[in-house]
Amino acid sequence: MGNNLPGSRRRQLQRIWSDAGVVPEYASWSLLTGGRTNLIWRVDMPDRPPLVCKLFLPNTATPLFANDGTREALALRALSGAEIAPDLVAFQDSTIGETVIYQHIEGRGWSGDVTEVARMMARLHAHTPPDGLPELTVTPAALCADGLGMAPSGLTAPPPVPDELPNARRAFLHGDIVPGNILDTANGLRLIDWQCPALGDPSADIAIFLSPAMQLLYGHRPLNGDEIAQFLSAYRRESNDAQTIARYRALSPLYHWRMAAYCLWKAGRGDQDYARAADLELAASEQA
Prior knowledge:
The strands form 3 sheets. The protein has a 5-stranded antiparallel beta sheet, with helices on both faces. Helix 5 (203-210) crosses helix 8 (242-267). It is globular, with a radius of gyration of 19 Å. The model has no long low-confidence stretch (mean pLDDT 95). By secondary structure, it is of the alpha+beta class. The protein has helices at 5-19, 69-78, 114-126, 140-150, 203-210, 212-217, 225-239, 242-267, 273-287; strands at residues 28-31, 39-45, 48-55, 88-94, 97-103, 108-109, 135-136, 171-173, 182-185, 188-191, 198-200.
C-alpha cells in the first residue's frame, strides 16, 4: 500500500459522501488502525454522533475470508436494531470501490469472556438472514478440498471424521468471528467487520472463534480446554441446539486441519506470523 493511499482515498471519499448528502464537508476524518484488509476512518461531527467509513480494497479476499462490501451492507441492514452489529447508514459502489458508512460504536477490545461470545453468536444464528447471502457448504469433502487447495504440499493428510454426522441447520453466519472483530461495549458485545457473512452451518462460526491461530493472530492467546468447554456449553444453553455442538465436535479435527492449511497459504505469501499459527492448528487437530 502506497504511503499516500489513505490520504488520497480519504479526500475522494469525503467528496463522494458529501455529494451524497451523507457526511457534511466539515466532518473530521481520522484513519483507524488495526484492520488487516481495508481502509477505515472514524468520522466526527460536532452536531451528531460519530460514524465509521470503510473502503473495501480490491483483490484482498482470501480462500477462507471474502471481502465484499455488498454483503456487509446486506448484513448490517438486516441486523439493524438487533444489538449485534453497528447500524448501517449508507452503502455505495463508488468510483474508487465499495464503501459503507455505519454508526460508530464506543467500546474496547474483547476481554476474554467466552460465555458472552457464545450468547451473542447464538443470537446471531437465530436471526433471520437477508436474501442475497451465499450458501456456505460445510461437509468433510468440502473441508478437505479447501485444505488441499490451499496447501497441496507440506501438510499432513486430512484427519478422519465419523461417517455419520449430525445434520447441519442453515443459519446467519458472520464468517470471521475473531477477537479483533468483537467489541465490548456498555450494552454488551458487538460484532464488526461483516465483509464475509454467509448462510450455512453454524459450526463454521464456532470453528473460527475457537481456532487457536485466529485467537493468537488477533491479539489473544489460544483458548484452553476449560474455556472451550465453557463456550460450547453456553452456546448450547443459549441456542438449545445440541446438534450443532455435536457436529462441531465431530468436524473439529478437519476444521483445525483446514485452518493449518490456510495459515501455510498465508505464510507462503510472506506473512510469517501465520507459520507458528499453523503448528498450533495441527496440534489442535491431533488433540481433537
